[in-house]
């Protein structure tokens, strides 16, 4: 069996740039607000210089009050634009997060079962939560603070050069170390962030497995062992985060030390300029204000870089999912979408899973409206055989036909919409019993649901529930017994009125009396409908038109019940052993 294909990956940021283009209006508006808010606040130090000049030159009180009021007004306007910045950019980042989460979820539903066979549920949950939050921080606060940093740096540097080119050159020397430190630390953050996100997936998977298997844990008294295992995973996660925290703890004091060095250099040389009379005091005050504004973006650059690196690490993990193409998908060209009659033909079918051949040269033709029984030991390939009918796994061309059409030429929606399954381990959703039966047949009426439930011998049980068919079942149907879950699944398969009905050991958890009732009720449902019944109980398949006995991926016996019993082979041995068991149970 082929694995899901990994094509040549696109650019690492293509995943989010399409959403940034979608919300470019908010992004542009946010950019305008960032520029306005920073320009307004960057004018204030220069007004401070003017006020100091007025104090030195004996300016009037009205002049000084005029500039003070101007500072207050500019500060208020700057605050308003800062609010609008967050209202637009942060809103945009939340929408990107929501849309990307929807894209990942839609893509997950297109992937083949083989993808989920090798991928932990907890890992997928981590990508839909923790990784998406890191990506949102990168495209929201990350873009906002980076833009603000760039505007502040450029404008403040321009003012500083205007006020004193010589002092500016003195201050820029140590400042050149900031980008070098940010780049070095950024690479270290990226590596640590990737390890943190990957281990968070392990942690999430452990929680998911323990919650899903809590009854097994309790039955085998493994609570303490699982708590200890989870504690060790949490300690490792804590250690990875503390390692990143130590990196931040080293980075911030280092940057602040450089910032203090900048201030001391400017103070020393600026003080000499003021004492010599070359620079007015107001100019030095304004210069220091701009220098402080310049230092903060330089220090904040480290935080912005960490947001970028954590977001990039998470984006790489998300991209690995989105770049995984489903093996099972509609082939290009015209596809068959007609109503299915139910003729099925296996032509020397061979199928391998993870390098192991499961089915070996299956040759079988099932005419429309016929009922086929499949029996055999566990692992003989029965479930795999029927799974191929709905193309859950790739099927080589020329080996499986439905109504004379190669299964690869059927449109997936048309194919799967006319085949229903009821399996040994049915999956029920956290919804009402009625909604679980209606799943896949949205137009089914309440009467149709009740009729299907009656056929599945479920109605009596439902009437004992407080809300009848409106009774909510727990996660995976946990509030129902195994037999009730199987009968709900049978009703769900029936209500869809499929052309092909597959019952895969669907009554294994049902007692023999209820099973007999279901078999009697199913007689009218199976009539005129192609049906495949898999069962370990001969009683469930003995009325089938033809019964196949599978062994090691091959059909080694076939015929009616009476014919197979007369042959005295594997089927006959199984039948006699079950008859003996029934007789012993009656004693």
List the SSEs and their pairings:
Blueprint: H1 14-22, H2 24-56, H3 61-108, H4 113-117, H5 121-163, H6 165-175, H7 177-212, H8 214-219, H9 223-276, H10 281-322, E1 344-353, E2 356-366, E3 371-376, H11 382-387, E4 400-402, E5 405-406, H12 412-416, E6 419-422, H13 433-438, H14 446-455, H15 459-463, H16 482-495, E7 500-504, H17 512-526, E8 530-534, H18 538-541, E9 546-551, E10 554-559, H19 561-567, H20 570-586
Parallel strand pairs: 3-8, 3-9, 6-7, 7-8
Antiparallel strand pairs: 1-2, 1-4, 4-5, 9-10
Descriptive tags:
about 575 residues, alpha/beta, ABC transporter transmembrane region fold, Rossmann fold, six-stranded mixed beta sheet, four-stranded antiparallel beta sheet, 20 helices
What can you tell me about this protein's structure?
This protein is α/β, with parallel strands linked by helices and 587 residues long. It folds into three domains: 14-322, ABC transporter transmembrane region fold; 341-418 and 501-587, Rossmann fold (3-Layer(aba) Sandwich), CATH 3.40.50.300; 424-497, Rossmann fold, CATH 3.40.50. 64% of the residues lie in helices and 10% in strands. It has 20 helices and ten strands. It has helices at 14-22, 24-56, 61-108, 113-117, 121-163, 165-175, 177-212, 214-219, 223-276, 281-322, 382-387, 412-416, 433-438, 446-455, 459-463, 482-495, 512-526, 538-541, 561-567, 570-586, and strands spanning 344-353, 356-366, 371-376, 400-402, 405-406, 419-422, 500-504, 530-534, 546-551, 554-559. The strands form two sheets. The chain has a six-stranded mixed sheet with strand order 6-7-8-3-9-10. Strands 2-1-4-5 form a four-stranded antiparallel sheet, with no helix packed on it. Helix 5 runs antiparallel to helix 7 and helix 6 (165-175) packs antiparallel against helix 9. The radius of gyration is 36 Å and the shape is elongated. The two termini are 49 Å apart.
């Amino acid at each position: 069996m082929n694995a899901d294909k990994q094509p040549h990956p696109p650019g690492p940021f293509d995943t989010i740039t399409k959403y940034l283009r979608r919300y470019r209006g908010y992004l542009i508006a946010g950019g305008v607000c960032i520029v306005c808010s920073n320009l307004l606040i960057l004018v204030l130090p220069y007004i401070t210089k003017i006020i100091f000049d007025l104090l030195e030159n004996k300016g009037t009180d009205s002049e000084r009050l005029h500039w003070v009021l101007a500072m207050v007004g500019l500060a208020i306007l700057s605050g308003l634009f800062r609010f609008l910045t967050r209202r637009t950019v942060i809103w945009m980042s939340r929408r990107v997060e929501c849309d990307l989460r929807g894209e990942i979820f839609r893509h997950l539903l297109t992937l083949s079962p083989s993808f989920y066979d090798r991928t932990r549920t907890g890992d997928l949950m981590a990508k839909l939560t923790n990784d998406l939050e890191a990506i949102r921080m990168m495209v929201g606060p990350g873009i906002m603070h980076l833009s603000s940093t760039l505007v502040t740096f450029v404008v403040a540097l321009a003012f500083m050069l205007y006020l004193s080119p010589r002092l500016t050159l003195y201050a820029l020397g140590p400042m050149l170390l900031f980008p070098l430190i940010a780049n070095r630390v950024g690479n270290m953050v990226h590596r640590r962030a990737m390890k943190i996100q990957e281990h968070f997936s392990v942690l999430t998977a452990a929680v998911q497995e323990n919650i899903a298997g809590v009854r097994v844990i309790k039955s085998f008294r493994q609570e303490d062992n699982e708590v200890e295992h989870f504690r060790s995973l949490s300690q490792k996660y804590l250690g990875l985060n503390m390692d990143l925290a130590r990196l931040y703890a080293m980075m911030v004091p280092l940057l602040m030390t450089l910032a203090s060095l900048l201030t001391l250099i400017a103070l020393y040389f600026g003080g000499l300029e003021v004492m010599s009379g070359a620079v007015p005091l107001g100019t030095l005050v304004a210069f220091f204000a701009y220098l402080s504004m310049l230092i903060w973006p330089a220090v904040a650059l480290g935080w912005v870089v960490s947001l970028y690196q954590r977001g990039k690490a998470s984006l790489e993990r998300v991209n690995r999912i989105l770049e995984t193409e489903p093996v099972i998908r509609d082939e290009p060209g015209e596809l068959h979408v007609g109503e299915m009659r139910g003729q099925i033909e296996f032509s020397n079918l061979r199928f391998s899973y993870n390098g192991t051949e499961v089915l070996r040269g299956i040759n079988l033709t099932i005419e429309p409206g016929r009922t086929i029984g499949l029996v055999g030991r566990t692992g003989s390939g029965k479930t795999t055989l029927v799974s191929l009918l709905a193309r859950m796994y790739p099927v080589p061309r020329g080996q499986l036909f439905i109504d004379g059409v190669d299964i690869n030429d059927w449109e997936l929606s048309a194919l799967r919409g006319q085949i229903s399954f009821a399996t040994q381990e049915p999956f029920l959703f956290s919804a009402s019993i009625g909604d679980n039966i209606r799943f896949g047949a949205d137009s089914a009426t309440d009467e149709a649901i009740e009729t299907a439930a009656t056929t599945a011998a479920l109605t009596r049980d439902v009437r004992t529930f407080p809300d009848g068919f409106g009774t909510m079942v727990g996660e995976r149907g946990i509030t129902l017994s195994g037999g009730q879950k199987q009968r709900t699944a049978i009703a769900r398969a029936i209500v869809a009125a499929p052309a092909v009905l597959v019952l895969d050991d669907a009554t294994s958890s049902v007692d023999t009396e209820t099973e007999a009732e279901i078999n009697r009720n199913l007689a009218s449902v199976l009539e005129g409908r192609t049906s495949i019944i898999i069962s370990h109980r001969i009683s469930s398949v003995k009325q089938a038109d033809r019964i196949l006995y599978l062994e090691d991926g091959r059909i080694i016996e076939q015929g009616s019940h009476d014919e197979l019993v007369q042959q005295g082979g594997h089927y006959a041995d199984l039948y006699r052993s079950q008859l003996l068991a029934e007789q012993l149970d009656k004693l």
